[in-house]
Amino acid sequence: MPERPLILFPKYESAERKKRPGGSPKFHAPTYDRQVQRLQPKLKALQSAIDNGRLHFTQSPDGIEPEYTLVLEVAMGDSKSFFTAVKNLGKDNDDVEWLFELIEDDIANDEDFYKTNTKNECVENGSISCKLFCVLTNIRALSEILTLWKNYSCDESFKFPIGKTGLRDVFRNLKDIHLWGTKERLEETGILDAWREDLKDPTLPELKCEIELFFRNSKIKRIQAQRRLEIMIKELGGRVLTASSIEAIGYHALLVTIPRQYVECILENSEGVSIVKADPVMFFKPTGQAVVRSTAESFTFNGAVEMPTEINGEPVIGLFDGLPQEHHPFLEGMLVIDDPDDYTSAYQIKDRLHGTSMASLIAHSDLNSGGISIARKIYVRPIMKPYPTLRGSCEYIPDDILIVDKIHESVRRLFEPVAGAVASTVKIINLSIGIGNLLFYNRISPLARLLDWLSLKYRVLFIVSAGNHSEDINLGIPFKDFSQLSEIEKDIQMIKILDENSRHLRLLSPAESMNSLTVGAVFDDNSNYVQNAVQILPCSNSFPSPISSLGKGINHSIKPDVLFKGGRSIMLRNFLNDNEGRWRIGCNANPPGVLSAQPIDIASSSNKVAYNFGTSDATAMISHEAAKCYDILQGIFYNEIGESVPSEYVALLIKAMLVHGAEWGTVADTICKALNLPGRAADDIHKWLGYGIPNISRVEECTKSRVTLIGYGDLEKESAHLYELPLPFDFHSKKIYRCLTVTLAYFTPIKPTVQKYRAAQLWFTIEDNNKKLVPSRLNADDKAVVRGTLQHEKFCSNSAVTWGKEDSLKIRISCREDAGIFENTIPYAIFVSFEVAEGLDIDVYQDVTTKIKQKVPATAVII
Question: Which Pfam families does the record cross-reference, listed alphabetically (predicted)?
Answer without folding.
Answer: Peptidase_S8 (PF00082)
